[in-house]
Design goal:
The protein has no helices and twelve strands. The chain is an all-beta fold and 131 residues long. The protein is elongated, with a radius of gyration of 20 Å.
C-alpha cells in the first residue's frame, strides 16, 4: 500500500529499504499497480541415482491492479513449473526446465489500460560447465 500523506513522501525503513510514493490524495490507501497483495513460491528438488535430479512446484500470484487508482484488476494465478537434470561429470550438467506446465492463461504484467499475457507452456534446455 502506498500511504503517503502528504502525497509525495519518502520513508526510510532501514539502511537498505526505503519507500517513495508519488500519489494523489484519491489513491491514498490503495494497492500499488502491478503488485499483488499476496504471492508465494514453493520449489522442491530430489536427487536420485547419483546423477539425476527432478524438481518442481507452484508459484502463486494474487490479483493485481493495472493502476494506482485500482480501476482495473487482473485475476491471480497458480503456475506449475518443473525441472529434470543429469550430471554428466562433476563439472558438466544438462537440464530441462518446463514453465507453466498446465499451459494456463495468465497475465505477466499489467499497466495503464493493457495486460500482457504470459508465455504458454515453455521448455528450456541448458548445459552448465563448472571450471
Amino acid at each position: 500500500m502506498c500511504n503517503s500523506n502528504p502525497p509525495h513522501l519518502f520513508r526510510q525503513h532501514s539502511d537498505r529499504w526505503r519507500c517513495t510514493c508519488g500519489n494523489t490524495a484519491a489513491n491514498i490507501g490503495k494497492q500499488i499497480a502491478n503488485v499483488p497483495e499476496h504471492s508465494a513460491n514453493l520449489w522442491i528438488t530430489y536427487d536420485f541415482l547419483e546423477k539425476w535430479q527432478i524438481g518442481g512446484g507452484p508459484s502463486y500470484v494474487g490479483s493485481r491492479f493495472s493502476n494506482n487508482a485500482n480501476a482495473n484488476r487482473v485475476p491471480g494465478f497458480v503456475r506449475w513449473d518443473s525441472t529434470i537434470a543429469y550430471q554428466i561429470t562433476k563439472s558438466i550438467q544438462l537440464r530441462l526446465n518446463a514453465i507453466n506446465l498446465t499451459n494456463q492463461l495468465y497475465f505477466d504484467s499489467v499497466g495503464g489500460s493493457k495486460a500482457v499475457p504470459a508465455a504458454g507452456r515453455t521448455f528450456i534446455s541448458s548445459a552448465s560447465f563448472k571450471f
